[in-house]
Each structure stands twice: as C-alpha cells, then as structure tokens.
Amino acid sequence: MKIWCVEDDEAIRDIEVYTLNSTDFEATGFTDAAAFRAALSTDKPDLIILDIMLPGDNGVELLKFLKDRPDTRGIPVIMATAKGMEYDKIQSLDLGADDYLVKPFGMMEMVSRVKAVLRRCNPTTEKHLLKAGGLVVNLDEHTVIVDNKRIQLTLKEFELLRLFLSHPGIAFTRDQLFNDVWGENYVSETRTVDMHIRTLRVKLGDYGNMIETVRGVGYRLEAPL
C-alpha cells in the first residue's frame, strides 16, 4: 500500500516515512502542495496523510482540490492538525477527510489510524486468498500462482486444491474428495480422484509434493510452516 505524507517539517516528515516503511507500507514524503500535485500527475497513492499548515496551498485547500477531482476523490485522507485548531479539524471532515491526527501524535497511533482508515475505506480490496509458501490461490479471480507464475488448472483440479488448502493437515478419503468435488450424484469411480491428483501434482511442480498419499485413507496436504 502506497502512503503519501505531505508535511513541510522535515523532521516530522522523515519519521513518518521511516515508520510507515518499517511497518510494511510504501511511504513517500512531500514538502509542499506543488511537489505533491506534480507527483499526482503520474501516480496515485492508496492513502494520504496531509498536514494542514503547508507553504503555498494549505492542507485544507489541497484537500478540497483532491475531493473535487474524479480521479482522486476516492483516495482516503488523514489530516494532521495542530492542537487547539478545532475549526480546521471540523472543516476538513466536512470536506471529506476520513480521519485526523492532532499534533504532536505518536507514530504507532499514526500507523493504527492508517490501517483503520484503509480497512474502512477499502473493504473490497481484501481478496480471498489461500496460501502455502509461494503457492497462492485467489478464490475471487479463480487463479493459481506458483512462485509468481500463473498456472492453468481444470475446474476439478482447482476445487481439489481449494479443499486441501482450506483444510491443511486433514486427511480426506477418496469418497470424501469425490463427493465434495464431483457431487454425490456424479456417476464415475473414485479412481477419477487419483487421476486428477496426479495431474494436479505435476502442474504444481515442487508444491505438488505437499499433497501426500495417506495409505489406506486417501490424501492430505501438508502445507509448509
């Protein structure tokens, strides 16, 4: 997630950027509205921390600029206000700011508010993923990635993998796998499961070894720790 910090105080800006980068965000700092506007012409952040007291256009004017533009109005904004500046805080919220921080604020408070605003403003960005090491199954997009490379699975292979990754360490009988993936009314043999497991292992490469044969039972997936 890209976080942009617009703050003219170099010491504050540096610690904001350092803290965010240390907590798995990608942070960039800007000294004023001019530098920030220039960057917006080529890129867009996921969230902005915007100081009200800026040289040139102040934070409130810059917030209004953001909310007036179709391509930026959806970007969450956290305003940084000075203690006692109640009017600025209210005005910012009325203009569409998503939260505010009162200076001086702690860095952990800043990180917590950033995470809370991102959760609140981007609930649909949280994808339904199943992971085991470099193996990633995206249930929304119906895709499978192996070490950053997309592979193609049949529908039944995908459903088998989804079932295994959803229940790591659980041993499934062939009958259970057949009923869950093909359905009870499907006419075939449980040998079909073995054939699909075989091709699934091949397509997964080294990750195929995670699907273990449990003698006398069926199969289970032992995901890496």
Provide an overview of this structure.
The strands form three sheets. This protein has a five-stranded parallel beta sheet with strand order 2-1-3-4-5, with helices on both faces. A four-stranded antiparallel beta sheet has the order 6-7-8-9, covered by helices on one side. A three-stranded antiparallel beta sheet has the order 10-12-11. The model has no long low-confidence stretch (mean pLDDT 89). The chain starts with a strand and ends with a strand. The chain is elongated and about 75 Å long. The chain has 225 residues and is of the alpha/beta class. The chain contains eight helices and twelve strands.
Summarize the helices and strands and which ones pair or pack.
Elements: E1 2-6, H1 10-22, E2 26-30, H2 33-40, E3 47-51, H3 59-68, E4 77-82, H4 86-95, E5 99-103, H5 107-121, E6 129-132, E7 135-138, E8 143-146, E9 149-151, H6 155-166, E10 172-173, H7 174-181, H8 191-204, E11 211-214, E12 218-221
Parallel strand pairs: 1-2, 1-3, 3-4, 4-5
Antiparallel strand pairs: 6-7, 7-8, 8-9, 10-12, 11-12
Helix pairs in contact: 1-5, 3-4, 6-8
Number of helices: 8
Shape: elongated
Q: What structural class should be given to the helix and strand makeup?
A: alpha/beta
Total number of β-strand segments? Answer: 12
Helix and strand pattern? EHEHEHEHEHEEEEHEHHEE
Helical content (DSSP H or I, runs of 4+): 40-55%
How far apart lie the N and C ends? 26 Å
Radius of gyration from the alpha-carbon trace, in angstroms: 25 Å
Task: Give the DSSP E fraction (strand runs of 2 or more residues).
Answer: 15-25%
Strand line-up in the sheet with most strands: 2-1-3-4-5
Quote the average pLDDT: 89
Runs with pLDDT <50, length 5+? Answer: none
Sheet having the most strands: 5 strands, parallel
